[in-house]
Write a structure and sequence with these properties.
Order of helices and strands: HHHHHHHHH
Number of strands: 0
Radius of gyration: 16 Å
Largest sheet: none
Shape: globular
Distance between the termini: 10 Å
Strand content: under 5%
Oligomer: single chain
Helix content: over 70%
């Protein structure tokens, strides 16, 4: 993977679409907060699809895009609840199992939502395909993608302004990585 090109492209796309991305991110965060997180997974799917379309066709992101994947509401909600429960049990047993589950889910399922919105795969098929893509990708390249994505999310997640900036940047970066992995 050409990480220098991916980072440059991420910054260029972010600056080029700054205002629409900020508005779309505010809608994503607002709807997720108002719904107490219940709509967050499906909003993320719509957000991901919008970023993917922006990268592929230079379509401007729009706030209504976050609502475009509502048909995935139930599978994503159930998956999120299941994953949250497993992580919580892991943290209750000892801290380490919960942390291992989070790291494994992030590492192996990072392409699950993009596959659901891009290839119209179901939950289980997209999870299996994500794991398959990860296994086919050079381990070090994939590890770098996960670390960069996680660092951007972590750094931005400490404040509201940071979150508004980090969500689009990390999502653009991930979609650029996804494009390289799927097209290789």
């Amino acid at each position: 993977m050409n990480f220098k090109k991916m980072i440059e492209s991420t910054l260029n796309q972010s600056l080029k679409n700054l205002i629409p991305l900020i508005i779309m991110t505010l809608v994503f965060i607002g709807v997720s907060a108002i719904s107490l997180g219940i709509l967050a997974p499906v909003m993320l799917a719509g957000y991901t699809k919008s970023i993917l379309d922006m990268i592929r066709t230079e379509k401007d992101p729009s706030p209504k895009d976050v609502f475009s994947q509502m048909h995935l509401f139930l599978p994503l909600l159930l998956f999120t609840l299941l994953l949250f429960s497993v992580i919580a049990i892991g943290f209750l047993l000892f801290f380490l199992p919960g942390l291992i589950i989070i790291i494994a889910a992030t590492f192996f399922l990072i392409y699950m939502v993009p596959l659901m919105v891009d290839k119209n795969l179901g939950l289980m098929d997209s999870a299996k395909e994500s794991i398959s893509l990860v296994r086919q990708t050079n381990f070090l390249d994939h590890l770098i993608v996960v670390v960069i994505y996680s660092v951007i999310q972590s750094l931005g997640g400490s404040t509201l302004l940071g979150t508004i900036i980090s969500i689009p940047i990390s999502t653009i970066f991930l979609m650029l990585a996804y494009e390289q992995v799927v097209n290789s």
